[in-house]
Records
---
Amino acid sequence: MLYLAEVKKNHSWIGSRATVLKLQAYCQERSRQIWRTVQDEVILATQIKHINKGMLVLIEVTSDRQVCQVYSTTAGPIVNILQAFTYLEKQWTTYTQSWEDLKLSLLLQQQELNRHETRIQELEEKLQQALARRSRRRYQ
């Protein structure tokens, strides 16, 4: 899986070739050009060089959470990711507004139906009263 992450810490020990990166993941690619945000996901990577704290990187992670590749980002991939997020955000806003409009419409329809139901009940009561009066007159 591919993640967009920020390098939070970069440690290397004197006399050691190992470098440990603490990466704060922000989003994950679910499928081509479909990204989702991730919360509190930290990924540790070793044996990666020339990456500095604060850099945004794209990291390829295996299913067992091992980092297999780290790509220094240029503006292109980040712009593509942000465009995808912007598109999804607009879609979400549209769907949310449609949902709110539908809820309001259903509420207004329910109120109208309740008003009609009350009116029908009133007319039924008047009809019952009229039939009862007519019945009494016949038998008098």
---
Amino acid sequence: MRKCSLICLLLFCVLAGKAQVKKQVLMNVYATNAGLAALDGDEALRKAQLVTSNGATIEYDLAKKEIRLRIHLPEKHDLFYIDKVEKDSNGNTVYQCTGAAQQGKVEIVAFQSGDVILAAIDRGVIFMISNKSKLEMLEGE
């Protein structure tokens, strides 16, 4: 009986650890200028360039306080350390992060709808990752 309890406890611990990792795959990755976005968000979205339509995987590991972003093609991996997590007034989750590869401060916004993620990097670039086309995102504004 004791062995059974220990096995169940071990299984529960493993499952609890995996429950803190959320993985999301979105197909379109766009890039735009952060300075332009600060002046006019719609104009920045209109001028956004498609980086790839081959997808990106975003993995949130809250136990390790890390976010991993992997762009599928061209293959690129980024690791961000989570400094702070909060909800904005619209219910979106905002992750204040520090880039592991000298990206500086990074703000990642995961929209509550789950279909758009913004990654604003201190170096002046905003990445938009979504299953939506640019036109669909503009119409949603």
